[in-house]
Design brief:
Blueprint lengths: L16 H9 L3 H20 L5 H18 L9 H19 L27 H8 L4 H12 L4 H8 L3 H23 L1
Helix pairs in contact: 1-2, 2-3, 2-4, 3-4, 6-8, 7-8
Length: 189
């Protein structure tokens, strides 16, 4: 394991990722708290894309961080720590909504997938307005649209994560896109 860039020793407030991860591996509460606080805002932002219920978001986030602390020994400093944590939190979100036992709808018809270049983010709406509209989508569609457009998962990855078929993932993306376009055009008038 290679230690990342060294932090100057004269700055006690500097974030020392390597020391923090090592402390978490040793289950030192101080380092776990430091990691949690360091990534709280960005990971809460991620979770809030999937739910607008604060209690639900905190529950999902805390379950995700518990997983992070259980698996922290697997982090090998070969990518960004934030990206590694983000992946675990996304799995926690997925598992939470799966546990609500959403009924899977299987659709076998081929859905034409438009290029990823036409993403929701490219529309001329601010992020908060898009987030508000995303929350109006049906729960499963909202999760899949978030995974596809914002987290840039492939349909294959989504199908594996959500335990659905690739065509079902494509259907949810197409349906979500149609619903969002309809909501956006209604808001313009």
């Amino acid at each position: 394991m290679t230690k990342p860039n060294k932090i100057p020793k004269n700055d006690p407030t500097a974030w020392d990722e390597f020391a923090c991860v090592q402390g978490c591996i040793q289950q030192k509460m101080m380092h776990q708290e430091q990691l949690y606080k360091h990534f709280y805002a960005s990971m809460m932002g991620l979770v809030k894309r999937y739910t607008n219920d604060n209690d639900q978001a905190v529950s999902i986030l805390n379950n995700g961080f518990l997983r992070v602390f259980k698996k922290i020994h697997q982090f090998k400093f070969q990518g960004s720590l934030e990206g590694w944590i983000r992946r675990i939190i996304i799995h926690a979100v997925s598992d939470y909504f799966k546990s609500l036992k959403f009924k899977e709808e299987t659709f076998n018809d081929d859905v034409n997938e438009k290029s990823k270049e036409t993403t929701i983010i490219e529309l001329s709406y601010d992020y908060n307005k898009l987030l508000e509209l995303l929350h109006q989508l049906p729960p499963t569609t909202k999760i899949i649209v978030n995974l596809f457009f914002i987290d840039e998962f492939t349909h294959k990855d989504i199908a594996s994560l959500m335990n659905i078929s690739i065509n079902t993932s494509k259907w949810h993306v197409a349906e979500g896109r149609k619903m969002l376009i309809k909501m956006l055009t209604q808001n313009r008038t």
